[in-house]
Amino acid sequence: MNNSKKVFIRTYGCQMNVYDSELVSGILKKNDYSIVHDEGSADIVLVTGCTIREHADQRALGYIRQVLARKKTNSELIVGLLGCLGQRAGPEWQEMLPELDLILGPDAYRNIHFLLQNLPKKSFVEPENILEDYDDIPPLRKKGASAFIAISRGCDHNCTYCIVPFTRGRERSRPLNSIVKEVGNLVEEGFKEVTLLGQNVNSYSNNGDSFPDLLEKISEIRGIKRIRFTTSHPKDLSERLVGIIRDKENVCSHVHLPVQSGSDRVLKIMGREYTSDHYLRIIDLMKREIPDVCITTDIISGYPGETEEDHQKTLKLVEEVEYDSAFTFKYSPREGTPACTMGNNVPEPVKTSRLNEVSTLQRSITAKKNQEIIGKTVKVMIETVSKRSPEDMLGKTDGGKNVIVPNVKLNPGAFCSVRIVATSSQTLFGQLEEVLDDNGSMTN
Ligand code: SAH
Ligand code: SF4
Ligand code: F3S
After folding, report:
1. CB of 191 shorter than 6 A to ligand 1
2. Ligand 1 pocket, 300 CB below 6 A?
3. What is the pLDDT of residues 94-111, one digit of tens each?
4. Which CATH number, 3.40.50.880, 3.30.413.10, 3.40.50.12160, 3.40.1690.10, labels domain 6-125?
5. Which residues contact 276 (CB under 8 A, 6 or more apart)?
6. Cα(371) to centroid of ligand 3, in Å?
7. Which one of 112, 263, 276, 400 is separated from 96 by 20 to 30 angstroms, measured CA to CA?
8. pLDDT for 92
9. Average pLDDT over the chain, rounded to whole?
10. For domain 377-435, is the CATH number 2.40.50.140?
11. Is the Cβ atom of 199 under 6 angstroms away from ligand 1?
């Protein structure tokens, strides 16, 4: 009979928060807690929250309020807030939600098991050690074909809109050897794909080794079939990196390269440290050198001071690049960031209509590009059973596009060739032609 306390973790935000939840799960499991997937049975509910935009705060807040309400009937229930939101909203939310038992930022997880056992009534813990890289802590990952690995934490850029440097501190790169070793271990555990994570992977630096050095070393590990990475900052993306993506078969031909705006004036106010010309030069280089490269991006509409002319420049750039897909956002002021006090705010309805124009344009480009794939055969790595139907499986192309393969049973991690027969706005639908490895049929 297992008497250990049961922990349920709900995660919001980007892959970094997902990875943080895996780290926390790893620490807790090692200290005899059990991680459960059913919130109702948990003794402890932890919320790894994101604070990148106002909407992210509100989503986490709604959920936390709902969980805290359960304390009325279960006074033993412990509720904690972690992640970027824990760091930023900590003291304020402690006052607003006095029933929260624990609030931790991303650098303060190491002793979470201890903190949970010694909860003062209201415990808010500041990140004591901003040099934390958790290099020695194995995350507890979900079984599957694909794993996240943080290669760095924090960010040294100062984009004027962004809260991340405030929530995750200065940039720290993990030692190269330990990342390489971890990938080797993951292969032995059966993982086929890794995604290397950092706010800006291109500025990875450890004892003279750069991101291309790391990528090259990882690509040489036997058994690692696919390597992805995110995010690349356009300022630091090198020609050598493009060469590695071109030459190494297991380095995927997908680059997520957030542009944010097509206007040099706005890019300057944003503190992005590149011009649209520089950005377009990298795009040209990638398109020339990497066959079938998939390029995706992030765009912010309605930045303080953004004029109609600036907005038109963004639309023009989107048309010129022809992204495979894009995350489009309405600018959201974050307290404490320079942009928040810039003034010159774009009225809300204008922000909304600009956002709609950008996303409508991008949707039509995505649809056109997906149409062009119909009739072609692509190589897919199967990831999981499709949410749409238990008869179908979901996989990804090398470029990162989702593909539904109906009426097949394959193991996660199986490679197969699939003929694309149809497409919806974000997803391709295909027919299985051939299973390409011995990972074939589903074993359970
Ligand atoms: N480190 C990554 C991005 C992290 S945040 C990078 O630099 O590319 C992910 C995206 O959220 C950003 O690329 C940006 O487009 C968006 N974003 C960040 N802060 C925002 C804000 N205050 N308002 C709207 N969008 C924002
Ligand atoms: Fe934020 Fe800029 Fe750092 Fe990305 S590079 S996390 S947008 S400050
Ligand atoms: Fe959100 Fe933090 Fe990621 S604020 S987007 S979870 S780095």
Report:
1. no
2. yes
3. 889 999 999 998 998 998
4. 3.40.50.12160
5. 259, 262, 263, 264, 267, 313, 317
6. 33
7. 112
8. 85
9. 93
10. yes
11. yes
